[in-house]
Amino acid sequence: MTFLVPFDGSYLAEAALLRAAEYGESLDQEVLALTIVPDDEAYAIDVGWYEEGEDEPFSVPYVAGKLQEGVTDIAPQAAFRYERIDQGTAAAITTRIRAITEEIRPSVVFLGTDNVGEIAQPVTSVAGGVAENPTYDVHIVRYYAPPSIPEVRLAEGMYET
């Protein structure tokens, strides 16, 4: 099984990755950080992935490499995957994330979002579109650092059929 974390480098995406890594280590599960990078320099500047005047010209692989460094800093054991898209809209990003979840079939998607109360409907939220799929569980992370999980123990026979 895989724990999937849509990762955009934001504070709460980092928190979701940290939480997924904690659970993954405790439950011996793979963690995959997934970044969707629009091929749009203005979008990358707007979300803080790229600054005008950087030594390196804008490119999707360059931006993805910077985000991968962030993933490695937080969860060195996590795998990293990025996908390039043309449009930097929430709908386009959501569509790509959903397509990848259909491909890899994660057991849990860890979402970092602070708009949990609005998650079902916001037009500008990627989280809402990802969370509505009933084929996987969703773990919503709203805070960066609750207490770490020293160990996860399942009750005997809890999941036996």
TrEMBL record:
Highest taxon listed in the record's lineage: Archaea
A matching Pfam family: Usp
Gene3D superfamilies per record: HUPs (3.40.50.620)
InterPro entries: Rossmann-like_a/b/a_fold, UspA
Signal peptide start and end residues: none
Residues of the UspA domain: 2-142
Record's protein name: Universal stress protein
